[in-house]
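Quick one: sequence plus S-adenosylmethionine SMILES, need structure tokens.
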Amino acid sequence: MSLISIVGAGPGAPDLITLRGEKILKNAEVLFWTDSLISPKIAAIAPKSCELIRTSSLTLEEILPLMINRANQGKRVVRLHDGDPCLYGAITEQICGLADAGIEVEVVPGVSAYQATSAALKTELTIPNLVQTIILSRTGGRTGVPENENLEKLASIGASLCLYLSARHVQEVQTTLLKHYPADTPVAIGYRVSWPDEWLTVVPLKKMASTSLKHELIRTTLYLVSPALQPNKNRSKLYTPSHDHLFRSKK
Ligand SMILES: C[S@@+](CC[C@H](N)C(=O)[O-])C[C@H]1O[C@@H](n2cnc3c(N)ncnc32)[C@H](O)[C@@H]1O
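Reply:
Sure thing.
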């Protein structure tokens, strides 16, 4: 049975792909890559002889037959998606179409934009006694989200909220978030995080929209809305001397 490798490319920097992903890429004979979101430097990890197919202007109906054709020729086919393929990667429709054609897939995870952004900020998104939940979501827009996941409902939890694909609707997003988060809640705005032209800042929630509009952010922007971004010295129980666990007795 033929096998296609779906590989997470990471957020942009070529050295943020996993070792497994890089190894598979180095052996690719055909590479399908989302050229609108992935650095050409990552596609260039594939051998010079590799057939490169850009997918940003293609439909699923155009991509699938090409993938199936190359896989059936016995070629090592790699499908590269930005960040982690499990987030807004539209891989399910590809996996189903390939399965119908008798082609199996393997999926290699990647570093997602929210992880790259929190790393760039040198922050943890789960601070003891402050916030212990991370929500990865997006606002509706043209694609829509199920009603029971609407942004206001998610905001009411007060968790660390990572918003993808939402920059075009930032004014509406800010208005909704202000119904639940205090106006001075820090919001990180990350544009092309880990790319050479990365732009990253932290502003109070009340300035989320004006800052985004001023910098004309529309694409490749991630928002991290979180009480964890404000200075705090909360300690974990894990490393507290009076707390014992399987690997350490009380000190
Ligand atoms: C189609 S989604 C894919 C997300 C990707 N699978 C991931 O795990 O990061 C594209 C959106 O992810 C976010 N994104 C991806 N890479 C980014 C980066 N380097 N910096 C900021 N946001 C990014 C933006 O919200 C962008 O509009």
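Residues 11-12, 37, 81-84, 87-89, 112-113, 116, 164-165, 190, 192-194, 219-222 surround S-adenosylmethionine (CB under 6 Å). Residues 3-108 form a domain with the Cobalt-precorrin-4 Transmethylase; domain 1 fold (CATH 3.40.1010.10).
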